[in-house]
């Protein structure tokens, strides 16, 4: 996203955080933050114990179950959802949104598939802390922090792709930990990845419905500041849980 695309919103840095938490979009962010703080899954990537058991036990090609698991993972993955929300927060026009979402999809699809196939993963706590940082990074970008602090605007497309790669390693690392069967591995991985993309489109559709309505309200500018501060706080909370989990584990 270029500077001019956010020029109307960037003066938010000169504003102050007010108690505007009545709008559904900000309540959604609050819910995500509370979920991140309260959920046992905050100490590991969002895969339930039942799904973990299934992945460990199943053998052969299982297209439909892995499609479902991929979609479920994305729809319930609050870390992914928060980052996706941050990416499209100030994007207007479906062409721009499609470009950024595609870059994110290319990134996490590449490293998820390659990571599992070549058995290359990163410690789950470390990579999930980095994913939490991606939420913080994007919230600060939305607030214009890098321009204010350093006088430069990082390449937002490159950042989206790079963080997409890192989100994909989060998926790959957890699947590797579950010791997925090599029997039918490629087909199951592709099905899982397609499911992730379907889940991402579902989440994106819901976010865009809320954002379209919200942007039409006169209070969007001042509430956008509060929303991105909440998003940043949720990212820091995720980072803290993962770092704590790393040392405890």
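-> sequence recovered:
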């Amino acid at each position: 996203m270029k500077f001019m695309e956010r020029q109307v919103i960037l003066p938010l840095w000169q504003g102050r955080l007010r108690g505007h938490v009545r709008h559904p979009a900000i309540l959604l962010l609050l819910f995500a933050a509370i979920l991140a703080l309260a959920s046992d899954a905050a100490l590991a990537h969002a895969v339930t114990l039942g799904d973990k058991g299934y992945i460990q036990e199943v053998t052969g090609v299982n297209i439909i179950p892995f499609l479902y698991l991929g979609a479920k993972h994305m729809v319930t993955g609050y870390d992914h959802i928060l980052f996706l929300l941050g990416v499209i927060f100030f994007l207007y026009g479906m062409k721009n949104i499609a470009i950024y979402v595609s870059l994110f999809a290319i990134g996490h699809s590449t490293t998820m598939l390659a990571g599992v196939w070549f058995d290359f993963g990163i410690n789950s706590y470390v990579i999930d802390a980095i994913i939490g940082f991606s939420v913080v990074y994007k919230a600060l970008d939305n607030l214009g922090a890098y321009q204010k602090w350093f006088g430069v605007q990082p390449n937002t497309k490159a950042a989206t792709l790079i963080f997409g790669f890192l989100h994909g390693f989060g998926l790959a690392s957890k699947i590797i930990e579950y010791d997925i069967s090599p029997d039918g591995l490629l087909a199951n991985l592709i099905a899982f990845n397609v499911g992730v993309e379907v889940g991402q489109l579902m989440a994106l559709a819901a976010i865009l419905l809320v954002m379209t309505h919200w942007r039409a309200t006169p209070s969007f500018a001042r509430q956008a500041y509060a929303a991105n501060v909440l998003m940043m706080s949720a990212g820091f909370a995720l980072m803290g849980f993962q770092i704590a989990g790393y040392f405890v584990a």
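The radius of gyration is 18 Å.
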